[in-house]
């Protein structure tokens, strides 16, 4: 949870910075690279959270998560272009920042539902270590 909230907060700041830097190509390139690094961290943390937060089989949870990601990826350009054309070039970044703030709020409101995330892994590692020790002894 701290990783998810921290990266979402950093991405929010990054989106605001991109709105302010929209007229500077070198700065935008640097911010995009930083965004890629943050998104790499976010993808890993979010994937693990999604996989652990449900009782569904791993394949079902993974495909549902991928579907949501791909839908978001498909919708974003269709919204960003017309929004920028109708307002300012930086408006899509501000919309993204607002969406990130909403995501932080939803995570905070639903954190009790994610309380078990991370604890099952510790138990699985202990059980695996026990099994390996038993196999070595046998």
List the helices and strands and how they pair.
Elements lengths: L1 H19 L4 H28 L5 H29 L4 H19 L9 H19 L1
Helix pairs in contact: 1-2, 1-4
Quick structural gist:
By secondary structure, the protein is mostly helical.
Following the backbone from N to C, one meets helices and strands in this order, namely HHHHH
Helix- and strand-based class?
mainly alpha
Number of H- or I-type helical stretches: 5
Whole-number count of domains: 1
Beta percentage is under 5%
Residue ranges: pLDDT <50 for 5 or more in a row? none
Taking all Cα atoms into account, the compactness measure Rg is 19 Å
> Which term fits the overall shape?
elongated
Largest sheet: none
Note down, in words, how this protein is organized:
The chain has five helices and no strands. It has helices at residues 2-20, 25-52, 58-86, 91-109, 119-137. The longest helix is centred in the middle third of the chain and has 29 residues, at 58-86. The radius of gyration is 19 Å and the shape is elongated. The model has no long low-confidence stretch (mean pLDDT 86).
């Amino acid at each position: 949870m701290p990783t998810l909230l921290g990266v979402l907060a950093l991405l929010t700041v990054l989106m605001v910075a991109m709105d302010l830097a929209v007229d500077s190509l070198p700065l935008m390139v640097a911010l995009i690279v930083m965004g890629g690094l943050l998104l790499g961290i976010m993808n890993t943390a979010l994937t693990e959270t999604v996989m652990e937060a449900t009782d569904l089989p791993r394949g079902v949870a993974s495909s549902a998560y991928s579907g949501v990601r791909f839908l978001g990826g498909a919708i974003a350009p269709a919204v960003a272009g017309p929004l920028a054309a109708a307002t300012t070039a930086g408006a899509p970044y501000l919309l993204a920042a607002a969406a990130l703030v909403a995501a932080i709020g939803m995570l905070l409101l639903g954190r009790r539902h994610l309380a078990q995330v991370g604890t099952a892994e510790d138990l699985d590692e202990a059980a695996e270590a026990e099994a390996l020790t038993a196999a070595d002894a046998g």
